[in-house]
Structure prediction request, 451 residues.
Amino acid sequence: MKICSLYGAGFYYIPGTDMCLKIGGWVRFEAAYGANGSITNGPFPGNANNRGTNNSTWRTRGYITADARNQTEFGTVRSYIAVGLSTNSVGSDNSSNQFSANRAFIQWAGFTFGTAQSFYDFYSNSATSYWGTMLSSDTGDTGWQVAAYTAQFGNGLSATISAEQRRMTQIVGAAGTTTIGTVAPGTGGFPGAGYGGFNVPDIVGNLRVDQAWGSAQIMGALHEVNAQYYGANAIGAGGPDDKWGFAVGGGIKLNAPMIGRGDYLQAQVNYTQGATRYAVYTPNFNYGYAEGQDEAFGVLSDAVYGGTGAANGTDLNLTTAWGVDAAYEHFWSPSWKTSVYGGYTAVSYGSQANNLLCASEGNGAGLGTAALATAGCNNNWNTYWVGSRTQWNVTSDFYLGLDIMYQKLESANLAGGALTGPVTISNTGANTVSNEDNWSFRFRAHKDFYP
Prediction:
């Protein structure tokens, strides 16, 4: 096959065509301790922290990538795909060892179509940490469906408008005897709650600059919040009117060659109403962490509503969430580097939303507009984290590394500080509300097929 030098190293002409193709990929092994059995979701979703908890977790991932490009009268047209294997093993391998594909997109004349990365994103978790459980907007690992146009204005300035797959966290329908359920992955939180059908994509826009000193971006997103019916999901019961949630953010990356060759600082801040997943992309579950008879918890949602019909049905009460992420990476030498990172995220509820949640949690009374929280019940919560990763680049395409992270969950509160029945995640009966923390350790060995 003939070498194609138009698009960089590794491309070859497909015989008989003007198309250039590059085949690449990578293989990775990881071992983690303190991840609650899931390297993806981490320690806080539904962690009973008892003898049934998986403290050790192993994962193997491998992807094959194909990058095909050729010229048109309007410039280069590119198609890219990444497919492979992603496992999450706690000693009982099963369907979690599965096919995975996180990229499949076409780029041409400024347009991007397919599964790429959200154009809202800026801060990259994976650039300075092995953990994806820090709360941010970053969709880089999983990919996200987009249909976007990027305009280049010169001098590194660009702007993008993008229609994207909607980012959903649960909508809580606190009606009748609906309760929080177990605070655990996959439960969805409140039975009977949820989004209505997909009608409108999220509308995302950014303005970005990339220059020798680094990069900066401001971004925003509009997100339709449309719930199911009141009561028992009967059509005659009606439902709350749709609302528009939003997210705004800003990010910066500053190169610091005066400290170390390759050094840089990256940071991003997000503020959301009714669009929580722009601040908390993953893990997308209610939070819960037990330590003996102590437990911390937090409800994660885009909105809360309640009632059994039009007579006492509430509007959608949009959830507010905001967060900040920051990291610095230092190169000790071309082969050794260390990053330090941290962040903070807070989730808060208005008065009516809190009344609805508390009544459903057994810490209040009344339905819909008549719901009233017991004094002391407060569903606002927050979490923060700090960590450090050190990596040895054995060669340009093979590295080993260790990442250590500390996380703190500052809990929501119930009246009297006791969690019983539907909000407990342990098997020991009544628990006491208490802020909880966790240490996590993660080792990685990674080999690229192509640098």
